Amino acid sequence: MVPGPPTTYPRPVQPDSEDDAWRSIVENYGDRAELGPDDHWSAREEPDRSPDRSPDRSPDDDTDEAWESDEERYVPPPPPPLPHLTPDRFAAWTGVFGSPTFLLVALLVGFHIPAWLGYLLVAGFVGGFVYLVIQMPREPRDPGDDGARI
């Protein structure tokens, strides 16, 4: 039978020097601290979590009319339309994402593709990537722009 932990733990004393402090830490390693009523963290105050009072509402607000009103509700403006890709950029993006996807699916399924089609897919990927890099803007739109887009 393994003896259990002691029921009482020695209360740490205030060390006089740094060596005594380290010695006290090593001697009491693994022991639980004994907290008494004079310790400042032993008597924590629990927040009031009564269901009738939420942090968003004031205690004087007895009606739900302010919360149910749709007049003051924010409605964002409609978003701008999505940009349409030009056919050349669509072909470039298709080459960049479509070629590796087709090659990966063919590999996973076990479909044997002819060598000329494999070379064509690799060329489509490289060509699409090079085209997109060439079409990138060379300078910021305005002098204070650092290139980040939101």
Walk me through this protein's architecture.
38% of the residues lie in helices and 0% in strands. It has 150 residues and is mostly helical. The protein has a domain at 87-134. Helix 3 (87-109) packs antiparallel against helix 4 (115-134). The protein is elongated and about 80 Å long.
SSE topology sketch:
Blueprint: H1 18-27, H2 65-68, H3 87-109, H4 115-134
Query: Low-confidence spans: pLDDT under 50, at least 5 residues?
Result: none
Task: Bin the helical content.
Answer: 25-40%
- Total helical segments: 4
Q: Helices and strands: which structural class?
A: mainly alpha
Give the overall shape, derived from the CA principal axes.
elongated
Strand percentage lies at under 5%
Largest sheet: none
Radius of gyration: 35 Å
Cα distance, first to last residue?
66 Å
Q: What would the average pLDDT be, to the nearest integer? A: 77
Give me the strand/helix succession. HHHH
For the secondary structure, the number of strands is 0
Put the structure in a nutshell.
The chain is mostly helical and 150 residues long. It contains 4 helices and no strands.
Question: What brief labels describe this structure?
Answer:
single chain; 150 residues; mainly alpha; 4 helices
